[in-house]
Structures are given as C-alpha cells and as structure tokens.
Amino acid sequence: MLRIVDFGPDIHDKESKKADQYISHGSASERREILDGIKGFSIFDADDVEDLERNCTSMIERGGKGKFRVKSIDISRLRMKYFFGHGYDYGGGKGSEKFFNPKDISPIPEWIYESIIEKMEKTGIVDKNWINSVVINDYEPGGFIVQHQDPPHLFERPIFILTLFSDSALSFGCNLRFDRTVEPVEVTASDPILRLPMQRGIITSFEGMCMNEIKHCVRPVDTKERRVAIILRRICEDGPVLEPLTNGESLRNFDKKLHKKVQKRCEKMLASKILPYERSFHLVEVKRETEKSKAAPKEKVKEPWRKQPKPKKESKKRKEKLKKKGVGTFELDRPIEKDENDKQWNFGDSPERVSKRVEWSSDDEQKEKNKRIGKTGDMADLIYDFHHQDKDLRDMDIKTIERKVHMQKSRKQRGREFRDKINSKFGFKTSVANSDSDSSDSSDSSEEVRPKKTRISKFTF
Ligand SMILES: O=C(O)CCC(=O)C(=O)O
Ligand SMILES: [Fe+2]
C-alpha cells in the first residue's frame, strides 16, 4: 500500500518553539520551493523494516569479510559507504566525478531488488527497471556528509533515499564547518534553509530545484544514533567510466591492508545497538489497495518524473575527448542483467570454486524454492493455506504455524535468533554466544552452525 508522508508538521520555522537544531531558517517561499520536489512514501510496515535492517546487518557482515569487490566499500570519518551496481570516484568534485568500472563494484544484492526496488515498482513510485544503482551510507552517531549535489552528469533525477535504524534529517542550503584546531576535528553547521526529517522506514524522493540548484548535507547533530541511508538512483548512460582495476576481484584477495581496516569498521557498526522501531511520521493520504489500483498503478499516480527519460545523445567530439583521457562511457540499454561473471563473483568466490552460488543471501535458497511453488513463505501464505485446508488440518494451532514459519528459515538464521535470545536473556554481549560472526570463509557455502573447534594442545609436564 502506498501512503504519502506529510512533512509539514515536522518542518519547524523560526517562530516555532522547537529547539534550535530542529529549525528551518529559510523564508516560507524558500522552504516551499525546496519542498516542491520532495515526496515521502511509506510502503514498509514494522516487520518489513525489521527485515530490511536484518538484511543490512548480514550485508555488513559480508563487507567485513572482504567479500565485495575492490571499490564497493569506501570508509570515511564516522561513515561507511557501500556501492552496488555502480560506484564513483569523487575525483576532486565539481563535475570531475567518474564511475568506477562495473568490474570493481559488486552487483546490487538480491534482497535490495526483492524487498525494496520491486516494492517501489509495484506501488508505482518508480518505473520498472529504472533503478540501477544503490549506495548505502552507514553513519555512526555524529556522522555527517558535507554539502554537495549528487553529480548531475552521473545520476538521473529523481533520487530516492530510504532511511533505516534511526530517524535523522537532510539539510538544504547549509554548510558544514570544520575546526581543525581541536582533536578530533569539530564539525558544526550553518543554519539550514530547510531541515527535512528523514524518518526510519520512509522512502523520500528528490527532484527539481532541491537536487539541481541547492546543496544538501547531513549535519552531525542530526545523526543522534547510528543510521543507514539507502540511496536508489539511475545512472546517466553517458557518464564517464574509469578503466577497471581488477577483473571482479574481491577486496580480501586484492588489498589485505584495506580489508583489515574495513573489517574493523564493520565490526564496530555491527556492535551498534538496534533501537526498537517506532512510527513517528504523519500521512497525508491513505490509498487503499484495490484490485484496480493493483492492475493499473500508472493511472493512479501521475508524476512528471515517472516518464521515461529520453536518452541523451552524446556528441562525437565529447566521446573522442573522453577516450583520449582513458575514460569510456556505458553503452547500456538497461535493465542490467547479472552476467555469469557477476554471479560467480557475487560472494567474492574464487572462480575455481565448484559450487557457484547465484543468490546473495543465505536465505535465498528457501526463497527460490518458494518462488518455484508460487509462495512468499511468509505468515500470510501460511494463513491463506490454513483457511483453504481440510477441517482437521485447519485445527492446527497457531504454535504449529509459528513453528512452521520458524523451520522455513535457514539453519543459520535460526541459530542466530537462538543466540540472540540467549544473549538478551542473560545479558551477554553478542560476542559471547555468537559463534558464526567470525571471519571464516566457509560460512558462505555452508549454512550449518557448527560449534567452534578447539584445538587440543599437547600434554606436557
Ligand atoms: O544520508 C542521506 O540521507 C543523504 C546521503 C546523500 O546525500 C548522498 O549520499 O548523496
Ligand atoms: Fe546526496
């Protein structure tokens, strides 16, 4: 179901009694002009949000093991960035940003397609196969991103941002300041023209003036807790592309030093406490999902940005110029299909490995099976089945259904949930009863939760 978020009640002007850090300092018309290109969508319920956050966690575990391609992870102060599909090099900014070669960037994980992109397509937020690039920013408390415009020569508009793990805000017309006389460097911000709340579980879309004429940033003061932003975009097909550094190598095989650094940061992020989810946003309208709207979502929401953009024609002269600099462009007629190479390298697996995994997440085997039999494998399916069964089967109690749902999860997931329960019951730190959070490489090919082997040392007197 598609529901539109009303930002109005959370945008506080100078007359408001809210604390200074929540205030937008622009005039009403300045705020309106920016807000005109911004829309918030609520398409996930609390369970979806929990699932998405769990998937993020497994993704970070993989990142820590160095399984993404060499340019998929970027570390900066209080923030980690994961590029999927396409990533780019800042190259000093101001229009000189260039795409890394797709060989050096991991493909978009399957769970992002299934749980986010497909849902956005189904609800009519975006056209099918439009999104082909995903960036995930993982901010520590106090994390920030300096004022910038998403490079217009690399990304089409609109851009979409999904916020997870905690609420935050995006500030427009605001500059970060760095006081380098103190250690660590202190980061503050000027008064924003507009402070836009970015609520957990909400997808916000940006286009027009807010993306093309004014800069945006995330202020440290708005990152009170660890937050993840998933940025979903479409690349410009004529964007400049760098030569590949590798032929699809994963980080752990390519740069051991950087891998160690990444591993440390991932472990730090994984140790963050996950806050309980609370819905804190207002909705302007609730659209009931009728059969009609399901069949023809395009008729319902008419937005100019939903029109398929016409591919820009690249001038011959510019192509020649870029070629001379060793920079190519994509020759893409979307959608991106994963080729054999992508599938093979999805886990950072070595090409020699006999059993190549196609899917990304450890639960995907079960999902694949469910897909074949036309099921999603969730509670709704089981309840549906329950009501369409013979009477004696229908008498099956809810405990049995819950157990069935539980048993549909992978052994690894069940083990993880069990350990989480033990940890929270006895107040252990996660590391105490967590035996599969190590960096063992074999954990990808096997979903078994094996006890740690203890080497028996020689007995000496
Ligand atoms: O974290 C956010 O919400 C914004 C991130 C952003 O603007 C970017 O990565 O380009
Ligand atoms: Fe941005």
Largest sheet: 9 strands, antiparallel
The poorly predicted ranges are 290-302, 341-363, 434-450
What fraction strand?
15-25%
Could you state the CATH homologous superfamily of the largest domain?
Answer: Alpha-ketoglutarate-dependent dioxygenase AlkB-like
**How many distinct beta strands?**
19
Q: Report the radius of gyration as a whole number of Å.
A: 24 Å
Per CATH, the class of the largest domain reads: Mainly Beta
Count of helical regions: 15
Listed once per kind, the bound small molecules are:
2-oxoglutaric acid, fe (ii) ion
Q: Can you tell me the CATH architecture of the largest domain? A: Sandwich
Strands of the largest sheet, in order across it?
Answer: 3-4-7-16-9-14-2-1-18
Query: Overall pLDDT, averaged?
Result: 80
The CATH topology of the largest domain comes to Jelly Rolls
What sort of overall outline do the alpha carbons produce when their principal axes are compared? globular
Family: Belongs to the iron/ascorbate-dependent oxidoreductase family.
InterPro entries: AlkB-like_sf (IPR037151), ALKBH5 (IPR032860), Oxoglu/Fe-dep_dioxygenase_dom (IPR005123)
Protein name: Oidioi.mRNA.OKI2018_I69.chr2.g6090.t1.cds
Biased composition (Basic residues): 307-326, 452-461
